[in-house]
Design a protein that fits this description.
The protein has 138 residues and is an alpha+beta fold. Strands 1-2-5-6-8-7 form a 6-stranded mixed β-sheet, covered by helices on one side. It has a two-stranded antiparallel sheet with strand order 3-4. A hairpin with a 2-residue loop joins β3 and β4. The structure holds coenzyme A.
């Protein structure tokens, strides 16, 4: 298999997964937050609103959840993650009084950022046990 084919397959897989994931977990109530430096996006996150049946952790219905928060690698470590989180939290306040997120237990950078913003660890996700569920009271 040549490099072009490999790239095409990887791209299709990523688009497929992304599409399914987005379709399964996000809807028209979602809010996208984008931080730009000039015209260049340097950070993006989505506040998604799950239905009651999708997630129920520790007896709590997970409703407004941060999804896909990210800063492109070449812009990381310059404070954009901080700005992105502050804006995401500010926007979430208009929608809810509890903001959730799910993060891999090995994602030290993100966990540090979330703790710094006041998110509390609710423990491992009941299904995806290598992920932590975190919540912020707004
Ligand atoms: C997590 C992420 C958004 C942070 O963005 P960033 O722009 O690099 O973050 P900032 O430079 O604004 O730093 C914000 C905080 O993140 C944490 N952090 C950032 N880089 C870190 C590092 N190398 N090691 C440990 N903690 C780090 C710190 O708490 C930092 O606060 P501080 O500067 O007061 O110490 C970014 O690394 C990213 O996009 N990662 C890949 C995608 C991802 O994992 N998203 C989270 C999915 S749940």
């Amino acid at each position: 298999m040549n490099k072009m084919n490999i790239r095409r397959i990887i791209r299709e897989e990523i688009e497929g997964i992304t599409h399914q994931w987005v379709k399964a977990t996000t809807g028209s109530n979602d809010l996208r937050v984008i931080v730009k430096k000039g015209d260049t996006p340097v950070g993006v996150s989505t506040i998604a609103r799950f239905g009651d049946s999708v997630y129920n952790v520790s007896g709590e219905d997970i409703q407004h959840t941060i999804m896909g928060l990210s800063v492109p690698p070449k812009h990381q470590g310059k404070g954009y993650g901080n700005i992105l989180m502050d804006l995401t939290i500010e926007k979430a306040r208009e929608l809810t009084d509890k903001l959730y997120l799910i993060v891999s237990e090995t994602n030290e950078k993100a966990i540090n950022l979330y703790k710094k913003k006041g998110f509390k660890d609710m423990g491992p996700h009941p299904k995806y046990t290598r992920n932590r569920v975190m919540v912020l009271d707004l």
